[in-house]
């Protein structure tokens, strides 16, 4: 099996007519962990949502290819089946649908008709992964995200990631609102996925998560594009100097308008 | 202004003969004739925003019947499916083309004085008891359709639970129609005496061989002091059957009723569900789901009347509207003067799945007392695009994602039905109607 590859070229994205991502380039390979950092409103989450295909986000130009397939030619579910995964900042609640049913439907959607996962195998796998994430067994039968705390929702996203085994995952602020224990469980889950068949893009404001999931590359994003790339030391530098220090160093001034996205 | 009424296709002579054949007591035949007289005079009901004038409520054959079977496996498969799990068939009454063909009640319950029989038998064998309750919660003269029920009744069930008898196992009734042009005119009476408790579940099915037909159902529930009734129903009539269904309950002091209704007819349907909380501390929990499909028109009126002090009601209606279906949902909570401490809540949610479908949810609160709590919520909307995106982002195809969302939306009622076979019936129905 060849190592998966995700190539993003000159991506530009608008939300409700407002340009937010302005020329974003990134190449990722299986086995790599990338961290994408930057102040609020620079377009990090917009990159994530555009790659997954949220209908609100309009890709105005640029390309994204997963193993040579153009993501922007595909519907959301096709992108997922091709190997993309987005752990969302605000996952939806779906009443009346149990977590287990949801996951089994998703897994079988990938495997295709006639190749469904045997029920016992599914249950065993799910039990094991839930244990690793310190999730109570009752989560399997609870309705998708309904009545979950913030931390429970985040862990549920990681559970889905582990069950679906995508080629590339984007974790959109998976650490926000997590206490230190939950952060460790999430990190444990992501680290258990590490292999040359899996690449991960971690979007975060803080260096903290990166203590637990060691990135190979750190990218700083400002005003809709990546302005600096380095190794893990870049995150530490950022932690010390703050984004203002980084801006001064790079000679960047804020856009007249920054947008929450 | 004079009202032009359609001539009814049945008369007194015919009805008297029908009653004689069934060996009915005089009071019952008199009730039929009173019904006939009223049916000739009274207009059809006028449900809000649904035109029913051209619906076929009257042209059908009511003198049909079927012979008794000795074993369940002689019955159509769709009936057997409702009770596959042996023990659940313990207390069951099965009607085919209006007449009872199979019945079973455990000895334990018979010994405790429980009566469970078809209406025709009850009329003969428990005439005095039945007379106390027949048309007690609703009146014969409410409108033409109730009057017709009295005049032409050809089926139904009588369930009587004596004082202090608590029944754990659910009691099941099944109605199945397959005779061409047949009409089921059923009247069900459930009586739970003081401090008794029972779960009753009824399923209505038909085969497409009926073609154009009608169903006229009046179901009365009398909940005694401190008694508890859980009443589940799944309606599944085929598309050319016009249904009028009226489910009425009267609840005495500290009594409690729970309705769990799966209203899944494929044909035009007029449904009246009403609960009268007469006694202090009486409570009602009403949950109903429906799916509109094809070109069917439906009108659902759910009514709760608070009379006693500290009475409580919760009403939850969930519906999905497909194709070119058209449904009106009225939820009415009435709190009478003197019902202090009453608490009435209602929620109606309608999910629109097609541009050609129509759905209309009307919340109505009528309050004549100060010291009460009442609330309502009503919404008509589409599948949430964020939910859809979320499910699709996990690789689930759009159609399947929509199906999951809709089925999940309707799930709260399915989970309430106490008989697995009936739960399966409703789940399968939802899957078929949504898919």
TrEMBL record, chain A:
<feature type="domain" description="ABC transporter">
    <location>
        <begin position="6"/>
        <end position="248"/>
    </location>
</feature>
<protein>
    <submittedName>
        <fullName>Fe-S cluster assembly ATPase SufC</fullName>
    </submittedName>
</protein>
<keyword id="KW-0547">Nucleotide-binding</keyword>
<dbReference type="InterPro" id="IPR003593">
    <property type="entry name" value="AAA+_ATPase"/>
</dbReference>
<dbReference type="InterPro" id="IPR010230">
    <property type="entry name" value="FeS-cluster_ATPase_SufC"/>
</dbReference>
<keyword id="KW-0067">ATP-binding</keyword>
<comment type="similarity">
    <text>Belongs to the ABC transporter superfamily. Ycf16 family.</text>
</comment>
<dbReference type="Pfam" id="PF00005">
    <property type="entry name" value="ABC_tran"/>
</dbReference>
<dbReference type="InterPro" id="IPR003439">
    <property type="entry name" value="ABC_transporter-like_ATP-bd"/>
</dbReference>
<dbReference type="InterPro" id="IPR027417">
    <property type="entry name" value="P-loop_NTPase"/>
</dbReference>
<dbReference type="InterPro" id="IPR017871">
    <property type="entry name" value="ABC_transporter-like_CS"/>
</dbReference>
Automatic annotation (TrEMBL), chain B:
<comment type="similarity">
    <text>Belongs to the iron-sulfur cluster assembly SufBD family.</text>
</comment>
<dbReference type="InterPro" id="IPR055346">
    <property type="entry name" value="Fe-S_cluster_assembly_SufBD"/>
</dbReference>
<dbReference type="Pfam" id="PF01458">
    <property type="entry name" value="SUFBD_core"/>
</dbReference>
<dbReference type="InterPro" id="IPR000825">
    <property type="entry name" value="SUF_FeS_clus_asmbl_SufBD_core"/>
</dbReference>
<dbReference type="InterPro" id="IPR011542">
    <property type="entry name" value="SUF_FeS_clus_asmbl_SufD"/>
</dbReference>
<dbReference type="Pfam" id="PF19295">
    <property type="entry name" value="SufBD_N"/>
</dbReference>
<feature type="domain" description="SUF system FeS cluster assembly SufBD N-terminal">
    <location>
        <begin position="92"/>
        <end position="172"/>
    </location>
</feature>
<dbReference type="InterPro" id="IPR037284">
    <property type="entry name" value="SUF_FeS_clus_asmbl_SufBD_sf"/>
</dbReference>
<protein>
    <submittedName>
        <fullName>Fe-S cluster assembly protein SufD</fullName>
    </submittedName>
</protein>
<dbReference type="InterPro" id="IPR045595">
    <property type="entry name" value="SufBD_N"/>
</dbReference>
<feature type="domain" description="SUF system FeS cluster assembly SufBD core">
    <location>
        <begin position="178"/>
        <end position="409"/>
    </location>
</feature>
């Amino acid at each position: 099996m060849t190592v998966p590859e995700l190539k993003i070229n000159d991506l530009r994205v608008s939300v409700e007519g407002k340009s937010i991502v302005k020329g974003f380039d990134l190449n990722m390979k299986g086995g790599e962990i990338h961290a994408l950092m930057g102040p609020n409103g620079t377009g990090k989450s917009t990159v994530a949502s555009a790659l997954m295909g949220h209908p609100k986000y309009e890709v105005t130009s640029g390309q994204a290819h997963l193993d040579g397939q153009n993501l922007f030619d595909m519907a959301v579910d096709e992108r997922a089946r091709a190997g993309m995964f987005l752990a969302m900042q605000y996952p939806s609640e779906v009443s009346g649908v149990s977590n287990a049913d949801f996951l089994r439907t998703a897994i079988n959607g990938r495997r295709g008709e006639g190749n469904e996962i045997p029920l016992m195998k599914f249950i065993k796998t799910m039990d094991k992964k839930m244990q690793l994430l310190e999730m109570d067994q009752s989560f399997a039968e609870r309705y998708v995200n309904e009545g979950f705390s913030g931390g429970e929702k985040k862990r549920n996203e990681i559970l889905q990631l582990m069950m679906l085994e995508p080629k590339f995952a984007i974790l959109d602020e998976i650490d926000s609102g997590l206490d230190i224990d939950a952060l460790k469980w999430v990190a444990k889950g992501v680290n258990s996925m590490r292999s040359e068949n899996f690449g991960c893009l971690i979007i975060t404001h803080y260096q903290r998560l990166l203590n637990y999931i060691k990135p190979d590359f750190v990218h700083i994003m400002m005003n809709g594009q990546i302005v600096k790339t380095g190794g893990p030391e870049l995150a530490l530098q950022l932690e010390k100097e703050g984004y203002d220090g980084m801006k001064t160093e790079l000679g960047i001034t804020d856009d007249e308008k920054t947008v929450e996205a | 202004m004079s009202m032009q009424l359609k001539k009814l296709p049945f008369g007194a002579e015919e009805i008297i003969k029908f009653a004689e054949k069934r060996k009915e007591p005089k009071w019952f035949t008199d009730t039929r004739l009173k019904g006939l007289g009223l049916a000739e005079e009274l207009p059809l009901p006028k449900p809000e925003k649904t035109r029913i004038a051209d619906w076929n409520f009257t042209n059908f054959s009511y003198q049909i019947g079927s012979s008794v079977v000795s074993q369940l496996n002689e019955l159509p498969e769709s009936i057997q499916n409702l009770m596959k799990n042996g023990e659940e068939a313990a207390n069951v009454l099965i009607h085919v083309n209006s007449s009872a063909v199979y019945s079973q009640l455990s000895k334990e319950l018979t010994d405790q004085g429980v009566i469970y029989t078809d209406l025709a038998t009850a009329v003969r064998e428990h005439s005095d008891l039945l007379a106390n309750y027949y048309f007690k919660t609703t009146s014969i003269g409410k409108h033409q359709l109730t009057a017709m029920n009295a005049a032409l009744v050809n089926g139904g069930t009588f369930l009587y639970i004596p004082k202090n008898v608590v029944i754990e196992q659910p009691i099941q009734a099944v109605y199945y129609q397959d005779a061409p042009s047949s009409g089921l005119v059923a009247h069900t009476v459930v009586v739970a005496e003081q401090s008794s408790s029972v779960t009753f579940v009824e399923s209505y099915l038909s085969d497409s061989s009926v073609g154009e037909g009608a169903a006229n159902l009046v179901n009365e529930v009398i909940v005694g002091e401190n008694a508890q009734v859980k009443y589940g129903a799944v309606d599944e009539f085929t598309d050319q059957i016009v249904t009028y269904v009226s489910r009425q309950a009267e609840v005495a002091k500290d009594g409690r009723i729970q309705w769990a209704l799966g209203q899944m007819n494929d044909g035009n349907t007029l449904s009246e569900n009403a609960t009268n909380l007469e006694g202090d501390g009486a409570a009602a929990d009403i949950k109903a789901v429906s799916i509109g499909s094809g070109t069917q028109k439906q009108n659902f009126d759910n009514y709760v009347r608070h009379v006693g002090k500290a009475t409580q009601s919760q009403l939850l209606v969930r519906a999905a509207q497909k194709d070119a279906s058209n449904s009106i949902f009225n939820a009415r909570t009435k709190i009478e003067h003197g019902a202090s401490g009453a608490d009435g809540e209602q929620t109606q949610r309608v999910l629109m799945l097609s541009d050609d479908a129509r759905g209309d949810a009307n919340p109505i609160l009528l309050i004549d007392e100060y010291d009460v709590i009442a609330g309502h919520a009503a919404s008509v909307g589409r599948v949430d695009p964020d939910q859809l995106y979320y499910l699709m982002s996990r690789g689930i195809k759009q159609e399947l994602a929509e199906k999951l969302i809709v089925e999940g939306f309707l799930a709260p009622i399915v989970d309430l039905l106490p008989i697995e076979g009936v739960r399966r019936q409703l789940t399968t129905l939802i899957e078929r109607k949504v898919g």
